[in-house]
């Protein structure tokens, strides 16, 4: 699907408020509501856009956010990523270049849960050679409207 400026405008508006109605978006952009609905449905059908609720982890009981930087034996890279992807507390996994092979973001309810994960679960995963753990101490920015300046 080739995107045009209208598609980008719809996405920018939804990044600011994912609950905006097609009618409101149509009014803002000066387009028919049917056009906005059609474009939205195409964006969703083509996996270009998802509109989801994003709860604040701390407000719903996840007190510890950590970043794991993993060095993994290349033979096991896919398997390690797939194993971690099945863990409910894992929010984000990416292959990376540079010093580490995988970056993993996890949310835990407590430090005790993090310790159990780090000492009980993680060592059982075949192929992990090294793990560097960083715990979020203070959040300065967490946004999903990065496209608004594009």
From TrEMBL:
Domain of life the protein comes from: Bacteria
Keyword annotations from UniProtKB, A to Z: DNA-binding, Transcription, Transcription regulation
MF GO annotations: sequence-specific DNA binding
Residues of the HTH asnC-type domain: 3-63
Keyword Transcription: yes
Gene Ontology CC: one annotated term: cytosol
One record GO biological process: response to amino acid
PANTHER family named among the record's database cross-references: LEUCINE-RESPONSIVE REGULATORY PROTEIN, TRANSCRIPTIONAL REGULATOR AZLB
Protein name: Transcriptional regulator, AsnC family
């Amino acid at each position: 699907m080739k995107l045009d400026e209208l598609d980008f405008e719809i996405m920018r508006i939804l990044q600011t408020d994912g609950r905006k109605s097609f009618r409101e978006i149509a009014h803002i952009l000066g387009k028919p509501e049917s056009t906005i609905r059609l474009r939205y449905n195409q964006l969703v059908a083509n996996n270009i856009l998802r509109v989801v609720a994003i709860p604040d982890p701390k407000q719903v009981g996840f007190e510890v956010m950590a970043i794991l930087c993993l060095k993994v034996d290349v033979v096991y890279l896919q398997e390690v990523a797939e194993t971690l992807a099945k863990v409910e507390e894992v929010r984000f996994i990416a292959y990376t270049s540079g010093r580490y092979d995988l970056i993993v973001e996890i949310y835990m309810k407590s430090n005790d849960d993090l310790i159990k994960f780090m000492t009980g679960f993680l060592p059982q995963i075949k192929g992990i050679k090294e793990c560097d753990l960083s715990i979020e101490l203070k959040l300065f920015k967490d946004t999903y409207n990065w496209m608004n300046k594009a």
